[in-house]
Write a structure and sequence with these properties.
- By secondary structure, the chain is of the alpha/beta class.
- The protein has two domains: 197 residues, Isopropylmalate Dehydrogenase (3-Layer(aba) Sandwich); 144 residues, Isopropylmalate Dehydrogenase (3-Layer(aba) Sandwich), CATH 3.40.718.10.
- 40% of the residues lie in helices and 21% in strands.
- The protein has twelve helices and twelve strands.
- The strands form two sheets. It has a ten-stranded mixed sheet, with helices on both faces. Strands 6-7 form a two-stranded antiparallel sheet.
- Strand 6 and strand 7 form a beta hairpin.
- Helix 1 crosses helix 10 and helix 10 runs antiparallel to helix 11.
- The chain starts with a strand and ends with a helix.
- It binds nicotinamide-adenine-dinucleotide.
- Nicotinamide-adenine-dinucleotide binds next to helix 4.
């Protein structure tokens, strides 16, 4: 049966990098490597221009009905002054909320050809392949109360609430263990149980889930130590699971060990459907719409294509194809091909040329 993709290119370079996914999907269909149907919608500023909202209800329905949503990027100066509720990012937040995407997967992979571009020494990051699993819908970003109170004496008091319930921890930790089983079978769970009650519960639940996965090595780590270890010896990690706040920080740090924003993919997954076992999923590059280079055809499409590789792997179980696509990305980098963001002053190619070269490797 054909896999249903819903494409949301968004704004700025989102549209340009999505163009390379569309070519790739066309090729996969033509060559009968896989069977995809695609539909395309509007999100962000482009949806606001057309419908006055950051994503229309009709497109939201299509996202809910799709096997995977492939998302480009949203935003840009043109929409800086639109009302808060319909700002471009509201489209992404609604997608995350309505699709119930609680697990954010952020890989940090070091391509050998780019090892010298890292701020760490080559031997520390060459061959790096870690996956940070961040809880995305709970914790201190959403907990109530969340407010600033005027104390009336020239002082104010700000409160954010870090709150987690057992089920939220259980389901995210299970995602991490399931993924570890497809990788090097090692999970670190990062929290601050030494100073936070939410950390105590986090670890209690993680330890209990670990018992269901006796084949996977499990280790607790304090989140501050995790930050230190990520820059000291990142290759000790395989899968790291953590809450929304620590995950936000640790995944950015881990990702940047390996190079440019234009290289970083991500996936966000929901709970498995009780009947089919399929998870709702959205795949997107980490970068934004890059208004400074939008429309010039020079954006790096690798983050977007690597996000699509994650869709092949996690939504469609097309593991060989995902491996081959990731290998093709590494191979063009080995050949010396670079977009401007990773050229380090050398010669560079445009979005389409990079996309075409990756497709050529895939076809070889
Ligand atoms: P950005 O990621 O768009 O750009 C940061 C810098 O990285 C820019 O110099 C840009 O040219 C460069 N860059 C990013 N992706 C690149 C790529 N694929 N190839 C080459 N260079 C690339 O972040 P920003 O400038 O802070 O934000 C721009 C707009 O994007 C804002 O409206 C912001 O709100 C939005 N944004 C959206 C998302 C999203 O859609 N998920 C994420 C972050 C920012």
């Amino acid at each position: 049966m054909a896999h249903k993709l819903f494409l949301l290119p968004g704004d700025g370079i989102g549209v340009e990098v999505m163009g390379e996914v569309i070519k790739l999907v066309g090729w996969l269909n033509r060559e009968q490597k896989a069977e995809f149907t695609t539909d395309t919608g509007l999100v962000g500023g482009s949806a606001y221009d057309a419908h006055g909202v950051a994503i229309s209800n009709a497109d939201m329905q299509k996202a809910l009905a799709a096997d995977a949503v492939i998302f480009g990027a949203v935003g840009g100066p043109k929409w800086d002054k639109v009302p808060y509720e319909v700002r471009p990012e509201a489209g992404l937040l609604r997608l995350r909320k309505d699709l119930g995407l609680f697990a954010n997967l952020r890989p940090a992979i070091c391509y050998p050809a780019l090892a010298d571009a890292s701020s760490l020494k080559r031997e520390l990051i060459e061959g790096l392949d870690i996956l940070i699993v961040r809880e995305l819908t709970g914790g201190v970003y959403f907990g109530e109360p969340k407010e600033i109170t005027d104390l009336g004496n020239g002082q104010k008091r700000a409160v954010d609430t870090q709150v987690y319930e057992t089920y939220e921890i259980d389901r995210i930790v299970r995602v991490a263990f399931d993924l570890a089983r497809t990788r090097s079978k090692k999970v670190h769970s990062a929290d601050k149980k030494n100073v936070m009650k939410s950390g105590v519960l986090w670890d209690e639940v993680a330890q209990s889930v670990a018992k269901d996965y006796p084949d996977v090595a499990f280790q607790h780590i304090l989140a501050d130590n995790a930050a230190m270890q990520l820059v000291r010896n990142p290759k000790q990690f395989d899968v790291m699971v953590t809450d929304n706040l620590f995950g936000d920080v640790l995944s950015d740090a881990a990702a940047m060990l390996t190079g440019s924003l234009g290289m970083l993919p991500s996936a966000s997954l929901g709970a498995p459907d009780k009947a089919t076992g399929k998870r709702k999923a959205l795949y997107e590059p980490v970068h934004g719409s890059a208004p400074d280079i939008a429309g010039r055809g020079i954006a790096n499409p690798i983050a977007m294509l690597a996000s699509f590789a994650m869709a092949l792997r996690y939504s469609f179980n097309l593991i060989e194809l995902a491996d081959k696509l990731e290998w093709s990305i590494a191979a063009v980098l080995d050949d010396g091909l670079r977009t401007g963001d990773i050229a380090q002053g050398g010669t560079s190619v445009g979005t389409e040329e990079m996309g075409a070269a990756i497709l050529k490797k895939l076809a070889a």
